[in-house]
Amino acid sequence: MTRLLILAALLTGSAAHAVDAKAVAAKVLGTTVLSVSALTTKQGEFIGALSREYDGAFVTVSLLRKVGSLYVVQWSTPTGQEMNQTPPTITLGDANRDGSPELLWNYGAYGNVTGGQFFELYDTARKRTYEASISENYGAPGTGTVTYDPALLEPANAALLAFVVSRVEKNPAFPKPDAKDPYGDMLRAWVAQNGAINAPGARYVAAKSVPAPASSCADDPRSRTAKVTLGGLTYLAVFKSGVFVLDPKKKTCTLVYFPPDAYQWVDQLKVIGAWIAMRNRDTQTFVYYNPKTRQLSTVAPR
Q1: Is the pTM of this model over 0.85?
Q2: What DSSP element (H or E) covers 190?
């Protein structure tokens, strides 16, 4: 991670020449500008902007480029978000060092119980968007879960990942290590050690057991979404959480699987030979766990 942050410090290039970027964006776009970022690369001078036509309207993200003495809109797209719960931000970078800027914008969105900070990165060279998020549970500080677009974890995207990480980890919602937060620590440990199983194209992961708070294995029918027993062990799928295994003899509780996000909890568990099949309630796809070999797999056992 240290290498990522050092790399991120080199991404933003030089700031655009002394220019009132917000005033320029407002004049070019003819809308209310919420946030701007200016950047000069080898391809020219750019301004990134978040704007909306009126209070309560969806926000549009735009990239302006200086042509001659004027700025013109090079790219623009609606976000489908009002971004009125926390002040949105936008940052321009040149992570790939190709002169084509990347736009990274951030906003907060919250419901009655959960919500979080959301980040979107648009790579203008590849014309591709990547996402990241920090989920938050009200009344449970430190239990936020950070999620990065699996595509960002690919080696070819290391520079883009560093750029995103540099902004995510500076966000006030970013979870801080807390010895009094065993549940949050458990989730972060599982994602760090086993989260690759949720990446596109993943087939097998040598799963590392992550101890869970005893309360996570409480068989509460109000939060339990599925249950199955194999080899004297009880497997519990929990609402907006993961799949835990309870060993009644050893009196241990272990997290064996956590979905890509809390809204894709497992809603079905079934035994297939030596494997436990766990169904994602959102995608209806299965991930499989073998307690003997301690493997996680997306490939159906034969």
Answers
A1: no
A2: helix 182-194
What Å distances lie between residue 161 and 1, 107, 132, 302, CA to CA?
10, 18, 10, 37
Full residue range of the structural domain in which residue 255 is found: 182-297
Counting Cα atoms < 13 Å in the Cβ hemisphere of 145 gives: 24
**CA separation for the pair 285, 302 (Å, rounded):** 16
pLDDT tens-digit readout, 222-254 = 889 999 999 999 999 999 889 999 988 888 889
Using an 8 Å Cβ cutoff, are 59 and 26 in contact?
no
Q: In this predicted model, what pLDDT tens digit does every residue of 89-103 receive, in sequence order? A: 999 999 999 999 999
Whether the CB-CB separation of 254 and 235 falls below 8 Å is answered with no
Each residue of 202-215: b (16+ CB within 10 Å) or e? beebebeebebeee
Quick check: is 302 in a domain? no
CB contact at 8 A, 151 and 161: no
Length of the chain: 302
Whether residue 174 is contained in a domain is answered as no
In a domain, 101, yes or no: yes
User: What is the three-class DSSP state of 119?
Assistant: strand
Beta strand 266-272 with 210-211: parallel, antiparallel or unpaired? unpaired
